[in-house]
Amino acid sequence: MTDKKNFNISDYLISHANLGKELNLNAFEAGIQLIKEKFFANKKIITCGNGGSASTASHYITDWNKMVNLATGKKFRGSLFVTTWGSSPLLETIFLMKIYFQDNWQQ
Fold first, then answer.
1. Is pLDDT above 60 for 2?
2. pLDDT tens digits, residue range 24-55?
3. CB-side exposure of 106: number of CA atoms within 13 Å?
4. Are 94 and 85 in contact (CB under 8 A)?
5. Which pTM value belongs to this model?
6. What gap in Å lies between CA 40 and CA 74, rounded to an integer?
7. 12 CB contacts (<8 Å, ≥6 apart)?
8. C-alpha distances in angstroms, 48 versus 86, 95, 97?
9. DSSP letters for the chain
10. What are phi and psi of 106, to 5 degrees?
11. Is 45 in contact with 39 (CB distance < 8 Å)?
């Protein structure tokens, strides 16, 4: 790994290639299959993000809403929940009210 003071693109790309060798590809494939299964069962896919991870969650939903429809002609049922409550003492429940209100808003 390169000294942070001497960053260069070559070492950066080598680091990414090394990380790629360590990834559990079966876990990625299982996640992809789960999303496809829920999509074809007409289920809603919800991504959640807190802070910087919110942009990743948003990116998934934005791309899926656009590209899945173009590829299949079928509307993708995706929702995004973003929060800045990461320091909340109830971290494990920060998305529950958002899910509740979204599911019950139009009833």
1. no
2. 999 999 999 999 999 999 998 888 877 778 78
3. 2
4. yes
5. 0.61
6. 9
7. 2
8. 12, 8, 13
9. ---GGG--HHHHHHHHHHHHHHS-HHHHHHHHHHHHHHHHTTPPEEEEEETTHHHHHHHHHHHHHHHHHHHHSS---EEEEEES-TT-TTGGGTTHHHHHHHHHTT-
10. -95, 5
11. yes
- 16 φ/ψ angles, rounded to the nearest 5 degrees: -65, -40
Model pLDDT for residues 11-26, shown as the tens digit of each residue: 999 999 999 999 999 9
Tokens of 52: 């910087």
In the predicted model, what is the mean pLDDT of residues 66-77?
89
**Whether 81 contacts 46, CB under 8 Å:** yes
Measured over the CA atoms of residue 96, residue 100, residue 34 and residue 50, the dihedral's sign is negative
